Sequence to fold (603 residues):
Amino acid sequence: MKTIDYWVYLAFSAFKLFLFSLYTDTPFSFGFFLISLSSALLLSSWTLLIDARKRRWILLSLLALHSTLLISDVWYYRYFGDLLSVQLIPSMTQMNDVGGGFMSLIRWTDFLFFADFLLFLLFIFALKKSQTVPAQKTNGKLAAVIATVGLLLFSAPLFMSIAKGERWLAGDATSNMREYYELGFWGYHGYDFGKGVVSIFRDPMPSEQDKALLLKAAADISTINKGEQPNIILVQLESLQTSVIGQEIGGEEVTPYLNTLKEEMLYFPSFHHQTHEGRTSDAEFAINSSLHPLRTGSVYTRFPDNTFAPLPEALRDSGYDTAAMHAYEASFWNRNTVYEHIGFSRFFSKKDYPETEKIGMAINDEDFFTTSIEHMEKLKEPYFSFMVALSSHIPYEIPEDKKQLALPGYENELVRNYYHTVHYVDGAVEVLVEELKQRDMWDDSIVIFYGDHDSGLTEAGREMANKLDANGVTEQFELARQVPLWIKPPELAQGETIETVGGQIDVAPTILELAGVDQGFMLGTSLLSDTERMVVFRDGSFRKGDVYFQPDLTTVPGTGECYSIESGEQIDGSACEPYIDEALDQLRISDTVIEDNALEYIQ
Fold:
């Protein structure tokens, strides 16, 4: 059979797609197989026009390319729950933000993706004695047939979707995974590449429908200006998830001091991070802008100069001295550009901190906090100080003498080090609070602590989830999405636990309400209001009250499963249905503001 090499290539390609779905625990339906096969046929049919001996080496190269992209997508998916995109290119220089933590994503079985390369190589050598077969007319006909079949298989479901009026690629895709399920592996990456090229030349302009959504959202915003203007201290704690608060391992509290803060601050146990691929930068952006992160990449690297109505700018315009503090390189995640653009008058970075003991990426949090207080004392009152701590950053590297927990029963070194670093940060926060109290900077200030995102170690079936019995849908959601939040308004007499459900986009409106400053265009609502807010996540999932909606990304927007947080059981979809479009609209409005620079249409 003169084209056996081609059919072997297709078989290997199809098997690798199944392997990808197996490794990522994503659906592999017959329809998805056909759409993925169709793009493989379209991309490879031309090789049948080439001399057989040369074709085999081309097919071998295509297998290697396919495997490289697949294994990269697997590793990326394990950390971000999404696929690689060309629009991530501006963020690639920042990927050491994850650092050695990527090693935790790699499993030896992943390299089975390259097994076909070796098998196909042996296959080539087995056929090397065969005669060179020049390209023949029959191969040309076969190539045309295969390309036609591929085109029909690829386009038929798309035309059917359009005929049904289904919205997939018409601006409502909340996740790259939705495009992946509709277009297949190669179809997704091809479409993504095309979007990346178009974005370079595209003139940002919101559609009339998007303008209407934007104007309606702006009309719903209410502002309160009391003119009180206390000092504000906002502290972002790296990778701090709610599960560690109150947790004991072997009789030892992981966060003994943070546990006690519930007695003198307002504590929000049902608070959620809304980050996506930008992780820490997404948290900063959501907190300071009250907008959602992008579905691909980070606002900090993709749209650093676009116009928002951010918290620092609102405070600065009201007379605040605004300062950001982060003891790492000023250019990392483009912070030196973004911080100035969103209203920070000063940025204290690595050069402004002493070269003391490092824990992880930068100087230890204790020295970072005490030096930051010294910087704060030089600010003009009222001031807004935004501190980004780093000691508990993945890959959770911490000196042996700082490991104070026994952690019996835990074997995964990365998980053990996570708990060690969180325990260390707990002590550093105690030092910060005591210093603020001693310097009379605590009582009359607004002080806020929050976790930026989860540890990245919460995957179902792994050690952390197993130990916390968090392998069900709602338990996994809470473990991966809940981060702690503490707020101390000025002169708070006693702490309180507030069960209201909220997310990171609600923090800026809360601060502005407490400070008595007017709010600009923000999608969140104050956590101190009586509003029952909906917390929306980048993939279209959301929580409202006791209800959690998990979208089905393999089909059109609006479909999915509805769960009760309290019982953990799936419930009738009617409990979620009234809010699905509202959640999608919220993401769409945020994207319009960011990507189309659309605030000029309502200002």
About this structure: Residues 19 and 113 are 8 Å apart (CA to CA). The chain has 18 helices and 19 strands. The mean pLDDT is 89. The radius of gyration is 26 Å.
